[in-house]
Write a sequence for this structure.
């Protein structure tokens, strides 16, 4: 489980992915949207499975938000 | 069903009150589960012990209710488990609910062939009463109720104690003190020790309710249920038709108000429905996780709540204290008997500090799941619960309490590392507690392996009788697995220990594994034994210590 988060483009048709992400939230209240995001993170985290990669992803996501 | 009658212990003036100088090897302060267990363990080893307790009965209210297999194994070693198991409620399954739905059920599916059940639920006062009864017939233990420790002063070669009783004060000098005086420990305060950690900003109503209900004896946990919106709830069965209920109230709740029947009864009615019930005991709690930096302070040893406190999810408080007592008693006995060196006692910290940290970690995680701090944590918690109904992985993230498991002390300190060429298979390692298994006695009757291990050091040998050890080494009791000695009727001893002819386990007096060998030489065993006894042995010329 050596990690190494891949940040090169891996999505086929990135615009379509981005749109589907926005669409998934359509019609939801802010609270419901937050719930969707939380579920999505959990599902994807389990799919990734590798704790090192997840830790790198969390660090990359947090980067610049707080010192 | 007969209900518990609180015993009333009387005060018996000890000789010290009439001016006789008192000196005892070990004084145990506090007759809760931890102190009583330590006293019984020492008493069974013949060590003179005085137990002091400021009260005249056992703990009031059921408090800890859930006793783990490891704790029951300890009680069984001390001869008190059978009555507790008979009286207690044996359980191994549970259900978790989220809002209106059941999200999953669990079964602590455990391999069969072990004498003690995975868990029993039994009110703490029953446990204390059983221990007191056993102690009353233990000649070397002097139980003193209505006796408060009111001064403690430690010198390099002893501890001076002042005890206050209904008939006045007296002084007692101890070689060693076991401070088992609970969360508010007087001993801890008199030594000026910091007790730091984390407080969870939440309040829980804990109630014992008597009712005849046909709910199963499983553990039921609700997150945000319709009968208690926004909080969590727990229902668990105890003996005598008692039920334990925990309701999360939130930090704003006023503990005084929430204890009043007019507040408590409607909350319980909402939960229990039309069943008639009687509230037996109520308390409002804020949970915390904290511990002393060291459990050994010179000649004073902290066990149980005086050493550490934790949130109750997972039942690690009550059980952890028993495991402290189990770890300390045999070591202290060897030192008091002059067999082992005082440094053996340092291994109490070496082994119990990490065990406590593991308990604190688990109970902290559970509490953080049950009491999410902030809206994002709450969102993740709810997301886990929502996914759990349909997705297996999320069920594993639901944390309503990770139940107490024994700590594996590891191959450091007292326990020897395996020789890699011995190639032991399976998950067992030195430092782990010995697993139980069925055996047959030479007369053909059935029994249990653990009943043959412990108290002294034992050598569990497969097939061959043990090599004789050099004269002057510590006494070791051989336990031979072979048809004409102890039979292995279901093959479970061999399977659980990966044992075949020649395999030898050195087992500590607390039934943890000290070392194991495929083809044991007397010198290997001797070295492992010395190491497990802290480097001893005081009598003959010392042999070379292991590098
Ligand atoms: C209200 C309540 C509810 C609880 N519920 C749960 C639960 O649901 N699950 C769980 O796992 N745990 C629970 N616990 C915790 C559990 O009861 C403790 O972990 C357990 O009792 C610890 O045992 P102990 O022997 O270390 O200390 P204690 O049981 O606290 O015993 C300490 C003893 O020392 C005596 N003492 C104190 N000071 C002195 C003195 N100066 N001189 C002489 N004697 C003294 C006291 O009278 C007492 O008998 C609860 C505790 C309380 C208070």
């Amino acid at each position: 489980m050596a990690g190494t988060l891949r940040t090169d483009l891996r999505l086929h048709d990135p615009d379509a992915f981005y749109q589907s992400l926005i669409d998934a939230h359509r019609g939801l209240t802010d609270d419901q949207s937050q719930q969707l995001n939380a579920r999505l993170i959990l599902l994807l985290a389990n799919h990734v499975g590798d704790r090192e990669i997840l830790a790198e992803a969390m660090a990359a996501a947090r980067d610049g938000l707080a010192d | 069903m007969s209900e518990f009658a609180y015993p009333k212990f009387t005060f018996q003036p000890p000789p010290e009150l009439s001016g006789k100088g008192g000196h005892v090897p070990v004084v145990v302060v506090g007759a809760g589960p931890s102190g009583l267990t330590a006293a019984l363990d020492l008493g069974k080893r013949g060590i003179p012990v005085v137990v002091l307790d400021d009260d005249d009965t056992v703990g009031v209210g059921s408090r800890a209710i859930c006793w783990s297999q490891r704790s029951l194994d300890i009680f069984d070693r001390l001869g008190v488990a059978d009555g507790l198991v008979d009286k207690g409620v044996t359980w191994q399954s549970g259900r978790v609910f989220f809002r209106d739905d059941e999200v999953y059920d669990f079964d602590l599916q455990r391999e069969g062939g072990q004498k003690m059940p995975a868990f029993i639920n039994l009110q703490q006062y029953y446990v204390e009463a059983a221990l007191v009864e056993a102690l009353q017939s233990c000649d070397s233990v002097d139980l003193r109720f209505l006796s408060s420790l009111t001064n403690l002063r430690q010198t390099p070669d002893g501890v001076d104690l002042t005890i206050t009783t209904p008939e006045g004060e007296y002084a007692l000098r101890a070689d060693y003190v076991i401070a088992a005086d609970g969360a508010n420990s007087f001993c801890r305060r008199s030594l000026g020790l910091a007790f730091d950690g984390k407080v969870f900003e939440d309040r829980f109503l804990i109630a014992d309710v008597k009712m005849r209900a046909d709910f199963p004896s499983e553990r039921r946990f609700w997150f945000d249920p319709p009968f208690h919106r926004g909080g969590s709830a727990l229902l668990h069965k105890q003996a005598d038709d008692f039920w334990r209920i925990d309701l999360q109230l939130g930090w704003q709740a006023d503990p005084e108000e929430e204890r009043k029947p007019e507040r408590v009864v409607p909350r319980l009615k909402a939960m229990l429905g039309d069943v008639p019930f009687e509230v037996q005991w109520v308390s409002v709690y804020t949970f915390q996780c904290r511990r002393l930096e060291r459990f050994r302070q010179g000649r004073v040893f902290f066990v149980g709540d005086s050493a550490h406190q934790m949130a109750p999810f997972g039942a690690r408080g009550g059980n952890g204290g028993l495991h402290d007592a189990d770890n300390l008693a045999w070591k202290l006995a060897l030192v008091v008997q002059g067999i082992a060196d005082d440094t053996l006692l340092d291994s109490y910290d070496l082994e119990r500090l990490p065990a406590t940290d593991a308990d604190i970690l688990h109970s902290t995680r559970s509490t953080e799941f049950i009491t999410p701090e902030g809206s994002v944590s709450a969102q993740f918690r709810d997301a886990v619960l929502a996914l759990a109904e349909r997705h297996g992985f999320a069920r594993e993230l639901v944390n309503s309490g990770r139940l107490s498991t024994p700590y594996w002390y590891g191959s450091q300190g007292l326990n020897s590392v395996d020789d890699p060429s011995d190639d032991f298979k399976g998950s067992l390692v030195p430092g782990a507690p010995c697993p139980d298994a069925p055996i047959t006695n030479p007369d053909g009757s059935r029994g249990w392996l653990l009943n043959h291990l412990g108290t002294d050091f034992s050598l569990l040998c497969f097939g061959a009788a043990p090599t004789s050890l050099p004269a002057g080494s510590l006494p070791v009791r051989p336990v031979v697995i072979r048809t004409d000695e102890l039979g292995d009727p279901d093959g479970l001893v061999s399977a659980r220990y990966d044992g075949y002819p020649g395999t030898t386990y050195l087992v500590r007096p607390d039934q943890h594994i000290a070392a194991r060998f495929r083809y044991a030489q007397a010198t290997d065993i001797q070295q492992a034994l010395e190491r497990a006894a802290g480097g001893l042995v005081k009598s003959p010329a010392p042999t070379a210590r292991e590098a």
Notes: The pocket of flavin-adenine dinucleotide is lined by residues B 29-35, 52-55, 59, 61, 63-65, 124, 148-149, 180-182, 186, 206, 283, 304-305, 312, 315, 317-318, 321 (CB under 6 Å). The first strand of chain B starts at residue 23 and ends at 29.
